[in-house]
Input
Amino acid sequence: MRVILRKEVENLGDVGDVVEVADGYGMNHLIPKGVAIHATANSVRAAQHEQMLREAQIQVAKRGSEEDAKRFAGVELEFTVRAGKDGRLFGSVTNRDIEAALAEKGLEVSRRKILLEEPIRRLGEHDISIRLHPEVRVQVKVHVLADESAPPPEEEASDEEAGGDQAVAEEAEETDVAPPGDKASAEASAEETGSGEAGEEEGADPPAEEAGEKDASG
Output
């Protein structure tokens, strides 16, 4: 049987195509699911008319995309990001970032049309394709540069730890509080000193007057 496709069917045809299919396939699958309709004389003429209109619209869209493509000529984008010594980024540059950078230059394009297989994770120059139309593509250069103004995260962590230790030391100096170990030693020394002084008092000789009285009585 002959049917007119209302939707694209892989290995069968595009929208508006008139194709021959098995009766069972057409009656039990394509037509009930709205994928195709019977190809009568009237429907074929209608489908052909629709196809002509659709092709005309496609050509108009293509010409518009070709005009837009001229605006992308020579466009270069620059991103300054933090990176390690091996050139790997601490993060990435995504199609969303590229979309925003293009918008700043007055070039509106959906990030879905930016053909980036995976986010950019290395420094350097990258050529990125943009699909403006199924038959029209442009390329822009993306330069990813290292941010020299900020240290890598591991260096920042070390600086923070060093700063924390210094702050603790400064606070101890201001409050004049000995560390726990030193305080215990000081208390122990004080106890020993106190015991020594008490011993000396107990073992001290009696005053000279008392010694003289004892000798006279003897």
Observations:
- Residues 172 and 178 are 7 Å apart (CA to CA).
- The helical segments are 23-30, 41-71, 95-104, 153-175, 180-202, 208-217.
- Residues 2-69 form a domain with the Ribosomal Protein L9; domain 1 fold (CATH 3.40.5.10).
